[in-house]
């Protein structure tokens, strides 16, 4: 969770630019981290990882981004990746 917040998530801000302390993941950041997780936890890399992501990532994203806002709260990402990997 610390890695997600520190290295991958984006902190939300108000219209005036004031940071809110709430962190979100966008789709491209979530997919990038997903490829790392597939390699470290499932041993998938290269074409095998890409094929797995092509088959499973979008449906996982849509399951968590139910309001189609283009973001998922960072504190929900552990569940996101468990869902993606089938664990």
Notes on the protein architecture:
The chain has 87 residues and is an alpha+beta fold. It has one domain. It is built from 4 helices and 3 strands; from the N terminus they run H-E-E-H-H-E-H. The chain has helices at 2-8, 27-42, 47-64, 77-85; strands at 10-13, 19-26, 71-73. The chain has a 3-stranded antiparallel beta sheet. Helix 2 crosses helix 3. The longest helix is centred in the middle third of the chain and has 18 residues, at 47-64. The protein is elongated and about 45 Å long. The two termini are 17 Å apart. 15% of the residues are buried. The mean pLDDT is 93.
Please list the strands of the largest sheet in the order they lie side by side: 1-2-3
Q: Helix amount, in percent? A: 55-70%
Average residue pLDDT = 93
Low-confidence stretches: none
Number of domains: 1
Please indicate the percent range of residues in DSSP E strands (runs of 2 or more): 15-25%
Structural class: alpha+beta
Approximate shape: elongated
N- to C-terminal separation? 17 Å
Succession of helices and strands: HEEHHEH
Tell me the radius of gyration: 13 Å
Report the strand count: 3
Largest sheet: 3 strands, antiparallel
